[in-house]
Structures are given as C-alpha cells and as structure tokens.
Design a protein that fits this description.
The structure is a homodimer. Chain A is an alpha/beta fold. Chain A has 19 helices and 19 strands. In chain A, the strands form five sheets. In chain A, strands 12-15-16-11-10-17-18 form a seven-stranded mixed beta sheet, sandwiched between helices.
Chain lengths: 555, 555
C-alpha cells in the first residue's frame, strides 16, 4: 500500500519538483470551485458534510484525551457547537514519539507517497474545507475554497517538494575508496541515515488555518517527524478535518495514526500552545500569529527550531502612475479582499503631499485619495460582490478597532457596518481609509489588523521610501508595492526591498494584487525582517527538519 | 578578473558538486606534504615565510584598528612575538557592511570564483600554514600540514559547494503565466534576488584554527556576507594568514578587501568574541570551542543565527573482536594522535567486566585493557614517531589535567612527560588510560579534554549501550565506535547512533580511525545532540545564510 502511494502520486511530485526549480506558473490542485472539476454534487456534499459536523463532538481517537474543548462561532453569526479532544501533552507526545521509528524507517519515498495521498484526499474534500474555513475565518466562500483548499494544498505540496529534494540530496550509501599510492586503496562502506528531530508543533492562526499551517505540517511530516496541530481556538474545524484525513491515510498505509494529532482548546484559554511549545519532545515549531506570542516562542522554546510568521506593516509607495483609474481599481480590491485581514494586505500608502504625475495629468494628493476611496466605494456598491469579497470580520476586536478608526486620522473613507445578503448576523465592515501626515509614525507605524488603511502624506517619494525603510526595519512587512513611471524610483524601490527584505510588487494594475501570493512562484515572507523569521517556501524552511547520521565500516 | 576566476576554477567546483552528491572519495587539495606536488622549495619557502612573521607586527590594513594584540606561544616552546590589529567593532563592522552591496550584486558565480581563488592560494601556502598551525596548536608537522592545510581547504570547498548549490536552486527570474480560461493569460516577470544576512562572525578554536573555521568562513562569504574572523587568542596566526590571502584576492578581483577582516586579542582577555557576537551588524556566528561559551552564544546572540560545535564525550563500545591486536593497534593511534586533543577522539571505552569473546579466544577485561595499553606503549616507543604523532599539548591546563589523571581511576597506563627530539621545551604528554566502573559516571561522563581515556567496566554490552545513550544525550558526542562480531549488537549500535544523533564507526582495524573525518564523505557533527547544534557539511549549514527577496511586475 505505502509504496503504491508513491507510484500513484509520483508524477505530481515530479511536476512540483520542476515547479520549485523554475518558479514559473504551476498548480497541482484546481482553484475553481467547479462541479465540472470536483464532481457535480461536490458542493452540496461538502456543505452537507460541514453541516453534519455541527453541534456534536468531532471524533478523533487519539491518546491523552482528557476532555473536550472548543466553542467556535462563525463570523457569519452562528455558533458551530463542535467540541474536539482536549489533550494531556504528557500522554499524547510520548505516543507520538513512539510512532516515529517506523515512519523514519519507511524512508523519504514512502513518506512522500503518504503525504501526497493526504493532500489528494484533502483536495477531494475542498468544498467541506471551504465551508469550515468560511465559518471560522469569515472569508467569503470562493476565497475560503481557494485559500483554504487548493491554494493551501499547493503550499503544502510546495514545502513537501523542497523537503523531499533536500532529503534526496543525501545519498543513502557511499563506497569511499581512498587511493594509497601503490598500496591497496582503503575502502569503506558508508550509510547515511536521515533522522527526524522529534515532534513538530504547528500553531495555526484564526484567519488562514490551513494555508499558513500546511507548509509546516507537510515539511515536518515528510522528513520523518510527528506533528501535533494546535489550531487557533477560533478556527479549529479546518485543522481537525486535516488531522482526520491524515490519520486515516496513515492508518491505511500501515502507520501509526498518532503521527498526526490535534490539540484543541476553547476560546479564551490560551494555554495549550505555550504548554506544548515548551515540552522537551517538541523539536520544531511552526507558528503564525501575533508578534507578541511569536517573539515569546523564539525567546523561550529553546529546545525547538522555531519558524514564525508574525505581524507586519505592509506598505505601498505611490510616486507616479500611467493610469490612476487602473491603480485605484487594483487597490480597491486589495483593500477590500477579506476586509484587510490578510498578512499581505497593505496598510500604509505613501503619497507625496504635493501630488503625483499621472497619465491623466498631475493629480493632487486629494485627487489620488479620492480616486482610491472612490474605487473602494464603487467596488463595494454591489451588495452581493461586497459580501463575497469582504467576507466577515473574524473577531470582535478587529471589528471594534475598525469602528474606532476615525480617531486615527482625517477620514477619507469611513468604515461601514454592512449587512450580508444571506447571513444577517454576519460581522461585516467595509474598509476605513485615513489620511495622516508622515510625522505621525506612532499612529500608522504599527500593525492595525483589519480593514484600516492610511494614506500617508510625505514631502516627496524620497521621504516615502525613507518612511517605508524605517517602518519595515522596525515592524517588519511581508509585502511592499510601488507605483511609478520613473525607472530611477523603481530601482530605488528594488534596492529598498532588498535592504529591508520584503517582496516587492511593481505597478500592479491588472488581475494580480499585492496581497496575493502564488504557490510555486512567489516566496512567502523572507525571514529577513521582523514580520517573519523564515520564508515558508525555501530550502532554509526544510533543511533543519532532519539530520544526517552516518555509519561506516571497512569493506 | 572576477569572472575569469570562476572560469579558472569551474572544474574544481563541478567536481566538488559531484562529490557532495555521492559522498564518495574525493579531495581537491593534495594531502601529501610533498615537494613533487607543491614544488621542491615549498617546504623551505613555507618555513622561511613562517619565520619571517615572527617577532613583528602582522600587517593587515583594515578600518577600526585601535592597537595591537596577540601574545601567542608555541606549544613547542618559543614565543611567536607577533602582534595583530586590535579592532573597534563599532568602526570595523560598518565598513564591512558598506562592502557588501557590490559583493551581493556580483552574484553567486563571481563570488564562488573569488572564494575558489582564495582556497587555491591558501593551498599554495599550505607549508607556511602548516608551520603556523604547528606552532599555535601543537600538532605534529604532518598533521598540521594536512589538517591545517589541504583538509581544511577541502572542508571550506565542501561548504562552498553546498552553499553554491543552494543558491543555484533559486532561479534568477521567472515568467509566470497563469491561464485564464478563454481570456488572455496573466503574465508577470519575477526577479529573485539572493540577499545576504549581514556580517558573519567566525570564532575559532585553539586546536583546529583553520579546519573548524573554513566551513563557516566560505559558507558565509560565498552567499554574499562579509566575515570577521575572531581566532582563539592562542592560535591567531593561521587565521591572520587566511585573512591576508582573502583580502588580497578580493582586492585583486575589484572588491573591497574589508569583506574579510581579523579581530585579534591577547591571551587572557576573552572579551572580543562576546562583544562582537552581540553587535547588531553580526547576523551569523560560527563557533568552535567550549560548551560554556557556545551555550552562551546560543542563549544571548539572538540577533544572529548561531552554529556551534562544542564539547562532547566520544565513546567506544567493545563487545567482541575478531582480532584484538588489530583493534589495539587502531586504538593506539586514535588515543595518541595529537595527544587526544581532537573533538573526535574517543574518551570512554566501554568493556564488559567479564571480558569479551575474541578471535584469540575469550579475553578478560584486564587482557583487553592490557592489549590497549600495550598497543599505545609500543606505538609510542619510537621517540621520533611519538613526537610526530603526539605533537605538543596546546595549553597548560590540558597538560595539568593529564598530569592529575591518575586521581580519576585505576591507572592502566600512566601519562608521561615526553621530551621532543628537536624542541626540548615542547609541552608533551603521552596518554593516560584509567579503569573506572560504569557507576562512576560523574567521573567519566564529562569531557576531560586531552590525552585521557577511560576503560569503563560494565555488566554487559547492553549496559555499555545504555551508558553511551545516557552520556551522549546529556553531554553530546561527535563520534561513536563499536567493536562487535555480533550482528545484533551492530544493529543495536546503529539504532543507538540514530537515536542520539552521533556518527558511528564499526570495527575499525585498518588504516581508518574514529577521529578522522574525511571531507566530502563524512558528515562532521550532526546537530542532533549537545556536542553541536549543526552539522558542518550539509544544506542546513548553508541554507539560512542568504534570503530570497523577489520582485514582480506585469509583462
């Protein structure tokens, strides 16, 4: 069974290996929530599967279960009523360790085959996952399907491919034959074992419970480690489905299902992640969430390698534009998508106070501000489109922050409480846009998570660039965008991006947005500024998840 | 000039890339200190070059020089009388940072060419380096030539090859073309910049000032970082020559020589490494030395990635042997070589107190002990050979520890103060071998650096294995050897090696010794036990030394 899986998915793996070499467009899992691809009944089946989960315990038969936890509420209004196993790490983790020797012994090909089958089955359950992601994160359905399903699966596969390639660079054996002049050469047979580190802990976030967790999950698992998933207390269900699928495939392939486990807790408890993170069995931690807890993990979980994606302050520099309408359309979508609750959404848009050159003729600051605000207003004027694009606000604190946003600057666009056409209790807000002066760095220079954007008036593009440099150096960022028709400014932006270690998007006006990060092509985060200590998709993310232990003997 | 260098050394790099893929025997730099290879006058020239260094300042024209430091004394008896620039990090490090943009911009091929030329010139100066290493570390001349010259150069090239391959896995550009059904595809041009981390700090040890430092030096340099070498105050000269060669090649290739700099200090000061390690400019630290300072670096230099090789307690398990004489001959060399001052030398030899099966018939514990002690005695009975193999003791503390070794257990072989045939003031000691009981773990379970070995009497091989497990888990190890004619015992040793993450040598009796680690084939350290948090020769050692920063724009 387990070698069959490798053969079955080998072509997918080989394509993924080619894709990470070229970083050209490729995707393993179709992003369209289409019955023609996923089956005519897939949507209805997925919704039914989701609904069948509600108001009952989610069954995962894992060791160390000491109770039930979980009290998720959909940002669209209803309580999910699902509970999950609450675990005693002192009982669970040793059981996970005990499962590892056979998993290590199986080798990279068998492990890759099992992981690819897990991804394949997750893909087949993308509609169920979409509903689960939608009703925990607040994402609109199509986004929940794409980001929570195929895009997350692609990111998992991408990390798997990097890890597989890294393992395959270590030969299994070598015959070492050292010449000795005219004497017989010395010959030794050497064996190189790939040895896992221990239990990997994946700590998820409330907004992207699968997309941000799958790279760590699959990178750790394929390299021979066990993985315990500790989802955010507000978004457990997508992780629980993932764990269920993984355990099912592992068991069918003849492995101990305890190689993957779930550690859930109820909203407001906030103890389980820290407790797990300090356990001696835990040797790898993947974390997405607040800078406060991410920094705490880096500082305190010293027995583990810690990979963090934390808060950042993403910036845009507008210097000059060929077509302000096109820019405004692009930014309207960027600022609206999932109500700004993406780690890649821009918060600060730096614009010279004296205005900018544009294809339409010179535009004043207010005209640029008006174009952006007008673009958002127009884009969200259709309630159906607004509901689908904005989705709902994941947590009350973000909604409250948005409601108070007018205090932060001169209001260019006031946030609105919106009503969802189908979920009247949904927690919906449209974006707030504020004008501030560049000197007000204490206001705009920190992350204000949610649909809050600043138009920052600067003396010049040179000042804009300096302000971005200072902001990103101190607070980090995952994305940076620049709009300019001046090659010198674009070169300065490119140099800035390298200096502060942030991905740059240049003059986005068509169907690509600064907050989109495409698997197999876009490197997500860099590890080179305070927003993240790792990139989710490179060799450095995977290379330390196993070690090489050799033995040698005379031949 | 700089692209020429890549072309000139390309074949060497390609062979190195093949070697790290197969881990079969390969070496770039001939290990024989032979006039036929290095030129008939190479030895005399090297000695003259070394002697010309003595009793004067070593000239390195680098920024931030605030005085002179250094007071090295040869373990063979004479003061070297050389001083080196003492630096102000606040002046030196910004100058090194300023040199990095052009170095980054040059790209991996040009940087690799320059680094390969540095290695090539170091190789041509192997005789001079041999004298420098001999008269700082105390190694015998041939060992100083090999370990300090070609073997160190091979290790540098090996790390360079891993880093080069890792960089080359990132494409420079990609055309990302995403299909849009019947509409025009979305096309974006992406550029992937390799960005260095900052200044690398290489903190050397007193016993292998080049071998243990070159992997970090070349891994950091080729990935675009600047590197400051902080050698041990007792072994500055080999690092200073290295820095001199690197600066010379960098300048000739049109780069700022300050990409490589030296930070020296006088014996007993012990401030410079800690001061440098906490500087914000320093983003990578490679350290070889004590566990105390290595742990301190890991704990405190939080702005940097820290790679450490620290103390360990290497073990041998003797279960059964085909030929005790052959085993004893092998161990005699292992225990004698460089007076046990290698990070790979065995300290604890576990033997069942009831004796072992042997090809010669059953041997009692005392017979095994006698064979080992007799082997050492016989091997060192020739004063010329003893002088060449033992070398001298690097520091007085190690000599004193050896002199007091008889207090540690029942003396099987008493250490002797030896006289060197050509250096009457040399600090020489022959190995001490003590018998202890397995229960005396507080005595043998810590590193006692130098020529001190324990024969540990256990109830059984099963207990031997348990004792090794406990020792390595707590104190770490870089090597483990087992002697057994029983496949079940060999399998248990292999499982133990994987569990505690230590390289295993099986039944070494011919011309390979547990303390030898061959570049391009043996992985040095694992990063999986307390003796080292990294392997010196794998992807994990290099992958984080640069980051990928992308930019993208519509086509």
């Amino acid at each position: 069974m387990s070698t069959d899986l490798f053969a079955r998915h080998r072509e997918t793996l080989e394509q993924a290996l080619r894709a990470i070499r070229t970083r050209e467009y490729w995707s393993a899992y179709p992003e369209a929530p289409s019955g023609r691809i996923y089956g005519e009944t897939a949507n209805a089946d997925g919704q039914a599967a989701f609904e069948a989960r509600l108001n009952r315990p989610f069954p995962i038969d894992q060791p160390g279960t000491v109770g039930q936890a979980g009290a998720e509420t959909s940002p669209y209004g209803m309580a999910l009523g699902i509970t999950y196993p609450q675990v005693d790490p002192a009982a669970l983790l040793p059981a996970m360790q005990a499962a590892m020797p056979a998993w290590r012994e199986a080798g990279p090909d068998v492990r890759a085959g099992v992981c690819l089958e897990i991804l394949h089955r997750l893909n087949r359950r993308s509609f169920e996952l979409a509903h689960a992601v939608m009703h925990t994160t607040g994402q609109g359905f199509v986004m929940a399907f794409q980001a929570g399903g195929p895009h997350a699966q692609d990111r998992g596969l991408e990390a798997l491919a990097y890890a597989y390639e890294e393992m395959k660079r270590v030969p299994e054996t070598a015959l070492w034959t050292k010449p000795q002049g005219k004497a017989e050469p010395i010959a030794m047979a050497k064996t190189y074992h790939l040895v896992p580190r221990g239990v990997g802990l994946v700590i998820g976030c409330s907004t992207f419970p699968t997309w941000n967790s799958y790279p760590g999950l699959f990178a750790s698992l394929v390299t021979g480690n066990a993985v315990v998933m500790k989802p955010h207390s507000g978004a457990i269900l997508p992780a629980a489905i993932t764990v269920e699928v993984a355990r099912e495939v592992l068991a069918e392939a003849g492995f101990e299902p305890n190689l993957v486990a779930l550690a859930a807790e109820t909203v407001g408890e906030q103890r389980a992640a820290a407790e797990l993170a300090l356990r001696p069995e835990v040797k790898i931690i993947d974390f997405t969430g607040s800078s406060r807890f991410g920094d705490w993990l880096e500082e305190n979980a010293r027995q583990a390698d810690v990979y963090t994606e934390k808060a950042g302050v993403n910036c845009i520099v507008i210097d000059s534009v060929a077509d302000m309408k096109a820019v405004a359309r692009n930014l309207a979508f960027t600022l609206s998508l999932y109500s700004g609750q993406m780690c890649t959404t821009a918060q600060n848009i730096f614009i010279p106070r004296d205005g900018i050159p544009a294809g339409e003729g010179r535009l004043t600051f207010d005209e640029v501000a008006g174009a952006i605000a007008g673009g958002v207003r127009k884009f969200l004027s259709d309630p159906e489109r607004a509901a689908e694009v904005l989705g709902a606000i994941q947590c009350e604190a973000t909604a409250e922050r948005t409601d108070r946003a007018a205090e932060l600057g001169e209001v260019v666009l006031a946030p609105e409480v919106r009503e969802h056409p189908r979920f009247p209790a949904a927690r919906m807000r449209s974006p707030a846009i504020l004008r501030v002066d560049a000197r007000e760095a204490p206001t705009y220079g920190r992350e204000l998570f949610g649909p809050i954007a600043f138009l920052v008036a600067t003396d010049s593009t040179a000042e804009s660039i300096e302000r971005v440099r200072a902001t990103v150096r101190e607070h980090g960022a995952i994305t940076l965008a620049v709009y300019s028709t001046d090659d010198a400014v674009l070169a300065a932006a490119e140099a800035l991006a390298m200096e502060v270690g942030v991905a740059l998007s240049v003059n986005l006006t068509d169907g690509v947005f600064v907050n989109q990060s495409a698997a197999f092509s876009d490197y997500h985060a860099t590890g080179a500024n305070p927003a993240a200590n790792a990139c989710l998709t490179d060799s450095a993310f995977v290379a330390k998840r196993f070690r090489v232990v050799q033995s040698r003997r005379h031949v």
